[in-house]
Amino acid sequence: MAPTRSDADRWILYTAPGSCGLAAHIALHEAHADFSVVLLDLAAGQQKGADYLAINPKGRVPALATPQGVLTETPAILAFVARTFARAALAPRDDAFAWARLLEFNSYLASTVHVAHAHKRRGARWADDPAAIEAMRRKVPQTMGDCATRLEAGLSGPWVLGEHYSVADPYLFTLVGWLEGDGVALEPFARLRAHFARVAARPATRRALAESGA
Amino acid sequence: MAPTRSDADRWILYTAPGSCGLAAHIALHEAHADFSVVLLDLAAGQQKGADYLAINPKGRVPALATPQGVLTETPAILAFVARTFARAALAPRDDAFAWARLLEFNSYLASTVHVAHAHKRRGARWADDPAAIEAMRRKVPQTMGDCATRLEAGLSGPWVLGEHYSVADPYLFTLVGWLEGDGVALEPFARLRAHFARVAARPATRRALAESGA
Question: Are B169 and B199 in contact (CB under 8 A)?
């Protein structure tokens, strides 16, 4: 981590390889935003270091530093990117219900899917007993498999919202990328696999992956 | 539960006493929306019944049925209510960053605070072993206490966003209302208590509480 604020007008995305920060990273490239990236080493605990806690007291990634302040929580960062770079058309604009569908989808990813995944390595957040933490880890293939089943059933078009790419797509891509590591075989999920391949092929995705060392 | 769709143009909020659906319920009254309420009996498992699963396959509350479809996830419902009833001024409109702060706050409540709370009674979502579920339950006073500490530190004005009430306020009110039951003494949290009292005194809150049998 080498945080710098030398250019106060330039956004800085704090993220980490393999983290959900990839979604915001991709979205910023889709938006053609001018930003720099700071990669944290989560295994080394940089997210809990004083330097980073001064930026994001929650000690988590991602965080997006802007001249107006630091924004956290992936659904909020994605919505902010979409709204700020409206010309990139990364979210529905005039249809309030379609726009709410985007928030609903991203909220589900954050509150249910990401939380299910976190019980694999972050069980200590919710219990102290090592046996309990191990019991949580064991259930992750099932809970993430259930999430994959729901997500598969909800995908009908090429993109999450149908015909138009939105900031929900890099977020889904990021979490689907965790499934195999979580013990979920991807074979039954043809739509999720096709979606993953579509997002993976986009230049913004390839650039974000290259920059985050993935 | 007695779901009805006799008036296709009227919104229906599906919620349950004591659930996070209270936030949307209050927000709809703040917006002076025309809607009806269907209360589910969670203890009786109505949220997992075929009638309700046809409305919300996730088997959770809240769900907001509208002529355009059923919307779930509290942060999405709250944002949709604020946008649809713009005259009620329940969210920042022109300041994109302030608007993102609202989404960030609600996303934190959904993904961290509500999730911490859910480990008290819903531990079976994340582990099968009864001892593990009990270990999760034991940690809830600590995790919810940590959340309360963070929320207290973040409150500076009378409302979550400062001088103006927004849909973040009934959501915070709802989750702060869970703290004592989660084993967190409210005494150290003067700002949260004052905020809770301010929201509790509003007519929309009193009406929602009366209608949800709380």
Answer: yes
Nearest-Cα distance to chain B for A208, in Å, is 23
**Cβ A101–B76 below 8 Å, yes or no?**
yes
Whether B71 contacts A97, CB under 8 Å = yes
In the block, tokens 């009110």 appear at B173
Interface confidence, given as ipTM, is: 0.96
pLDDT in tens, B2-25: 555 555 679 999 999 999 999 999
Least CA distance to B117: which residue of chain A?
A: A126
Both structure tokens of A89: 């058309």
A130-174 confidence digits (pLDDT tens): 999 999 999 999 999 999 999 999 999 999 999 999 999 999 999
Specify which residues A39 forms β-bridges with. A15
Q: How far apart are CA A141 and CA A149, in angstroms?
A: 12
Find out whether A116 and A108 touch, Cβ atoms under 8 Å: no
Residues of B in contact with A57 (CB under 8 A): 150
User: Which pLDDT does position B64 carry in this prediction?
Assistant: 98
β-pair partners for A164: none
On whether the CB atoms of residues B16 and B22 are closer than 8 A, the answer is no
> Of A97, A84, A110, A76, whose CA–CA distance to A162 is shortest?
A97
Best residue in A60, A103, A129 to probe B by mutation, most B CBs within 10 Å?
Answer: A103
Q: Considering only CA atoms, which of A106, A174, A134 is closest in space to residue B126?
A: A134
| Cis preceding-peptide flag for A62 (omega within 30 of 0) | yes
Q: Chain B partners of A75 at a C-beta cutoff of 8 Å?
A: 75, 103, 107
Q: Could you give the CA distance from residue A76 to residue B75 in angstroms, rounded to a whole number?
A: 10
Angle between helical axes of A130-154 and A190-200 (0-180°, round to 10):
90
> Residue B153: which pLDDT band, with cuts at 50, 70 and 90?
very high
Question: Least CA distance to A143: which residue of chain B?
Answer: B126
Q: pLDDT at position A1, please?
A: 56
How far is Cα A51 from Cα A155, in angstroms, rounded to an integer? 41
Provide the pLDDT confidence category of residue B203 given band limits of 50, 70 and 90. Answer: very high
Across chain B, which distance is largest between two alpha carbons, in Å?
51
SS (H, E, C) A109-149: HHHHHHHHHHHHHCHHHCCCCHHHHHHHHHHHHHHHHHHHH
